[in-house]
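Hey, can you fold this one?
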Amino acid sequence: MPFTETFTDFYNNVKASLADGTFAKLTLAKTIGNTDLMNIYVRPIVEEGILKLELKYKFQQEEVIEIHTIDNARDKLIAYINNPFLSAILFTIEFDLTYKLNKKRAVSITEKVNTFGNANEILLDYLVSK
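Sure. Predicted structure:
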């Protein structure tokens, strides 16, 4: 898989933001062509006292939700990079990090000013309870 290494670098920022309580949300977007799958939204969830990630697959006609461990979620998401998604955006309270493929499929990872001022509440509650 050609994007494994660069997406893993990007996903390490996702894991770090979960660990330090700055994670707001993660979105896979910008599809190639007109696809049935429009977005994947990722948010933390606590299941049986363990922090996991909920992946919400937004299709044109329905939504499908899956729950995965943090590491397993990376493997699920990477399968959608370049097919059909060209970007993934990590929103944290410190910065927004965009993983993007251009038309030649070259990867760029850019950091911008944060969009969200508050971290995900479920994550914060989980971190406080530990």
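The beta strands are 23-31, 37-47, 50-59, 63-68, 85-92, 95-101, 107-113. Let me know if you want another pass with a different chain boundary.
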